[in-house]
Every structure is written in C-alpha cells, then in structure tokens.
Amino acid sequence: MTTAPAPRTIGVGLISIGWMGKLHARAYTALPYVYPELGIEPKLVIAADTEPSRVKFAQDVLGFAEGTADYREVLAHPDVDVVSICAPNFLHAEIGIAAAKAGKHFWIEKPVGRGYEETAAVRDAAVEAGVVTTIGYNYRHAPAVEHARRLVAEGKLGRITNVRASFFSGYASEPNGALSWRFDRKLAGTGVLADLFSHATDLCQYVVGPIAEVTALTSTVYAQRPKLAMGTGTHFAVIENGEMGDVENEDYAAALVRFGPSARGAGAVGTVEASRVAVGPECGYRIEVYGTEGSLMWDFERMNELKVCLGRSNDEQGYTTVNASPKYGDYSHFQPGPGNSMGFDDLKVIEAKKFLVAVTGGVQENSNIHDAASAAALVTAAEVSAGTGQWQKVEDLDGTTAARV
C-alpha cells in the first residue's frame, strides 16, 4: 500500500484580482484535488487590488485570509511563499523585480515587461535572488500540444521543414470597443505583438525549438477608439458615442521566421501571424508543423484534438484526428478516458502544478523567466524589423525550456 506524502503547505499571495487573478486562485485551490499525490497544499494568504470590491471578493469568495490595497504588503507577508502577479502589463516589471528582491517565487502573466529591456531586468533580478519563476504560457500545457511536441522530438515527422502558427482573436474587432490600457503604448508596450504574437512564438519554440531570425510587418486597423477610464471595464467593453482617443500600438502582426541550429527543427522556416481584430475566430490559436515524413495541426478552438499524418506512402493520404487521452500530458488527472474535453481553466491548473512542483524542489517542467526573455526578444526583433524592413537576428537565450525534449 502506497502512503500519500504528508501535505506541504505553500502560502500564496495574489496581486490583482481581475479575471486572470481569479483564475490563478482557482488553480491553486484545485491543486490538491487534481494532484493529491503531490502532497502540496496551497494556502490562500493575502490578495491585493486597488479596487476595494475586488479585495472583498478575494476574501469572501476566493477564500484569501487577508486583503490589501498595497501589493507591497503581499510581498512583505511572512506567510507568503509564492506570489501570482496578474496586474496590467505596465506594472509587471516593477512588481516582478520587487517580488524577486523580497525572495518570493512568482508566477507572472505575460508579457513580463514592455519590451526586452524590462523583461531582462526582471530575469536578472530573479536569477540573482534564486527564486523560481513561471510564466503564463498556458497553451503549451494542452495534452494535444504535449503529444505534438513528443512526435517532433522523436522524429516521427522526419526532418522539420516548415511551420505555420497564428493567433487570431476578435476581442478588438468592434470599432467601438473601449480604448483600454491595452491600446496605450506607455501602459501596454506593443499591442498584438506582446499580447498574442508572443503566445504563438512560444508555442513554436516549445514544440519545434528556438527561433533565430525574424522579419515582420504590422498594421493598426482601427486608429481610434472610445476612451475608457482605468479600472472601470475591460477591453471587451463597447462604448457608443464616446470621446475618441488614439490607438498607439498595432492590431495585426505577421512574420517570417528561421529556426536556429539548436532547434529540433534546425534549418526549418515558417510564418507567424497574430490579430486582435479578426472577424470570425474568437480564439483561433493554431500551429501546423510539416516534416519530410509527416505533419500535424492543432487549433485551440478544438484543443482536445490533434490532426496527424505520418508517412508519405499511404494509399489514402490525409489526416487522422487523434483525441487527447490519458496517454498525453496531464490529461489523466482531469478526465478518465478519450473524448472527454478539457478546457482553458484546466491548463492554468497544470501551470500551477508545474510551478509549485518546481518551487518544492521537484522536476522543473515549468516555463520560466528565460522563456519570457526569449519571447520579449522575439517581439522586440519583430517590432524593429517592421520599422526597418530588415531581418533581425534573435539570440538563443540560455535557460529556456524551448530546446528541452
């Protein structure tokens, strides 16, 4: 008879209690139920937000013992071991560096900084402090994606020749969609490059390997939007007849990429696209990988399916639809058999699990601050290329999980 490990309590702090903050809290709470064998018991200690109603919600509904308007109180709390940072983009670097200096392991949403320099500053602070970090690249945790990565790593597709990735969303397709902080360069940095393009490139690097060069173009489809007061709504809000303000970053981005010599797809080329104004796709996050012996396709809107074609000599060429199953990734922790769907929230539970396993000294399968720096380097390179029309080289950064098998 196997004895379950004695529970290890991990004190959790949360900074910003919006949609993503709530999702982090729920992921921590689900951990003992989904992964009882780990013996990890997250304890919701303290949550911070500048909006009092959100702080009250964190205590009354989410279950945090304490609440505050000052994130510094979260970082100073002696019972907090790990911190989730879910604040708007322009606060990520400030809070991430402060968390590192406070000696707190942190799980931070992307983009970590408004460009490579800010992200690198957070990375350097985390490395110096020796804290464990995890980044919100949740799509890589889909069991179908984990299976795709394994097929590429095991050479089942042969030599990888080309890759197509895209993330098309319609959250800003409404012309009267609110001018939230996401459209303000000072607050958000780049637009769809940091928001969605970075997810697409992370998936490319996770499945295939490091991208070495990029050339890109961008466009802003809606130059003005109705203004929205900070903290009064989200970028999904629609405002009729409102005062207009300028959109300061891009709505669409596209890039040609070359994979580096350390990639599983060494020498492969590809395309990456992202849009926040697409009409039709709502969360059309897609990757296609082509090799000399086969290919595969995955789309988040059908996240529990992977289309696979192996072999060039089939009498009937075409794709087989493979359902996610207990054989792939962490699927068995959520569903008992193939055909039972997982969802977006489950991917955040997997992310929380990988984070806390790493924090407690276990295997480090979590994305980390080096992955964030690599994504930021790609975003910066794409932005520079869009301005100059020239190819930009991207450094293969040490410490990323992109090259791991």
Which features would summarize this protein structure in a list?
10 helices; 405 residues; 6-stranded parallel beta sheet; Rossmann fold; 2 domains; 9-stranded mixed beta sheet; Dihydrodipicolinate Reductase, domain 2; alpha/beta; globular; 17 strands
Structural features, described:
The protein is α/β, with parallel strands linked by helices. Helix content is about 30%, strand content about 25%. It has helices spanning about 20-35, 50-60, 70-75, 90-100, 115-130, 145-155, 185-190, 190-205, 345-360, 370-390, and strands at about 10-15, 40-50, 65-70, 80-85, 105-110, 135, 160-170, 210-220, 225, 245, 250-260, 270-275, 285-290, 295-300, 305-310, 320-325, 390-395. The strands form 3 sheets. A 9-stranded mixed sheet has the order 16-15-14-13-7-12-11-8-17. It has a 6-stranded parallel sheet with strand order 3-2-1-4-5-6, sandwiched between helices. The longest helix is centred in the C-terminal third of the chain and has 20 residues, at about 370-390. GO terms for molecular function: nucleotide binding; oxidoreductase activity. This is Gfo/Idh/MocA family protein. InterPro entries: Gfo/Idh/MocA-like_OxRdtase_N, Gfo/Idh/MocA_oxidrdct_glycsds, GFO_IDH_MocA-like_dom, NAD(P)-bd_dom_sf.
